[in-house]
Design goal:
The complex is a heterodimer of chains A (57) and B (251).
Chain A: H1 8-48
Chain B: H1 2-12, H2 16-48, H3 62-89, H4 92-124, H5 132-153, H6 157-171, H7 174-184, H8 207-236, H9 241-250
Chain lengths: 57, 251
């Protein structure tokens, strides 16, 4: 149940900004780690000559 | 004896594999603590606490504005301590942590400025005023962005971190200016009224959600700091054996 507030536009806009920035703080490191792991996996495969897990042969 | 153990433990944190493991272990617990305190804080802030007799429901913005403002400044202090350690002892993991703290502190400063402006429109009749508190907080955002930009500008990450650490210490002068601005100058921003020890202009019934949200922002800062530091460490050490062994086993 969403509470009914006076100045609701101001209150909810503030909480929405907070939610978006907090979500960015949570997901940005996760996305970056996935990208880094994928890059390292690729480098490892290239250096070892193992292409069996390569999705784009 | 105990000091020797603390000293050895502190120096062990300088070892990248030990630091990586520490981040990996602590981070989920900190995120869990953040989620719990956030849910409790938001429940109290939005459902339990009654409207303010003067500001009505607009005062609920305070529950995200004040913890974010305090964390933006506390984050800068933490970053400054890390910068001193990085400059004096040249510990790479502290350099990485100091650099990782900047975007998180900047995020809290943006929350503080945005929510303060939104609250100011119905209460002050304006989104922005060039008063000392607001301007010094805007300067803090520019300092955070400057640190991030300076670090990114160097190809040699260690050199970039050292230069950025010096900028962090120069920018430290802004923190007492922010804190005392409402006392040193006549400002539109209200003076210090919230206190958890001694006299406070805030009624006791309104404090619990504020405490929970302050705890939540502290845990969020620490968890995000460890996660970002671990990523930066992976990036910097990607061609080293220990990281390849660790990631090679998991990926």
């Amino acid at each position: 149940m969403i509470p009914q507030f006076e100045f609701a536009v101001f209150v909810w806009t503030s909480y929405a900004i907070f939610a978006i920035i907090v979500a960015w703080q949570i997901f940005q490191p996760i996305l970056r780690r996935r990208r880094l792991e994928a890059e390292i996996r690729e480098e490892l495969a290239l250096s070892q000559g193992e292409y069996s897990n390569d999705p784009h042969p | 004896m105990i000091w020797q153990k603390i000293k050895v433990g502190f120096h062990k944190l300088g070892s990248p594999p030990i630091f990586y493991r520490l981040c990996q272990v602590l981070s989920p617990w900190l995120w869990a603590g953040f989620a719990v305190s956030l849910v409790i804080g938001l429940y109290y802030a939005l459902y339990v606490v009654p409207p303010d007799y003067q500001q009505s429901d607009s005062f609920r913005i305070l529950y995200i504005h004040v913890p974010s403002a305090w964390q933006a400044m506390a984050g800068y202090l933490v970053m400054s301590i890390l910068a001193v350690i990085a400059l004096v002892w040249r510990i790479r993991t502290t350099e990485i942590m100091a650099m990782a703290a900047a975007p998180i502190g900047a995020a809290f400063t943006v929350i503080c400025l945005a929510t303060g402006s939104i609250w100011g429109r119905p209460m002050w009749g304006t989104f922005w005023a060039w008063d000392a508190r607001l301007t010094s907080m805007l300067v803090l955002l520019f300092i955070y962005l400057g640190i991030m930009g300076l670090y990114a500008a160097f190809e040699d990450k260690r050199k970039g971190a050292r230069v950025a650490c010096i900028l962090i210490l120069v920018g430290l002068v802004n923190i007492p200016i922010i804190h005392f601005s409402v006392e040193w100058w006549t400002t539109l921003h209200q003076g210090r009224g919230i206190s958890f020890v001694g006299e406070s202009t805030m009624d006791a019934s309104m404090k619990p959600p504020l405490i929970w949200m302050i705890v939540a922002t502290k845990l969020l800062f620490t968890a995000a700091l460890l996660d970002r530091s671990r990523n930066e460490l992976i990036d910097q050490d990607r061609r080293k054996g220990w990281i390849r062994r660790k990631l090679g086993a998991s990926v």
